[in-house]
Amino acid sequence: MVYRSNRGAALNWRKSSASTDDSTCVEVAALGPSVLVRDSRDHSAGVVTFGRAQWNAFLSAIREGDLDRR
Asked: Per the database record, which ranges form the DUF397 domain (predicted)?
């Protein structure tokens, strides 16, 4: 789900400490049982919302390399 609103303005958005100022990165925030993800450079682009199970499956796919470009 993508939301194009400013509702996340008061959330505690976090970005990886491995990110640098010139790299493309996303930020994440918790909102109740959901995890929100947004572009760190373009906050107006919208927010993708994951349920906890979806978020855990997404992280697992990243760790396993299932989303790597081949």
From this structure: 11-63
Predicted confidence at residue 10, as pLDDT, reads 81
> Beta strand 47-51 with 26-31: parallel, antiparallel or unpaired?
unpaired
Assess if residue 69 is contained within a domain. no
Instruction: Output the six-digit token pair for 59.
Output: 């992280």
* 61 three-state secondary structure: helix
pLDDT tens readout for residues 20-57: 666 678 899 999 999 999 988 888 999 999 999 999 99
User: 37 forms bridges with which residues in the sheet?
Assistant: 28, 48
Largest CA distance in the chain: 38
What total number of domains does the chain contain? 1
Separation between Cα atoms, residue 70 and residue 67, nearest integer Å: 9
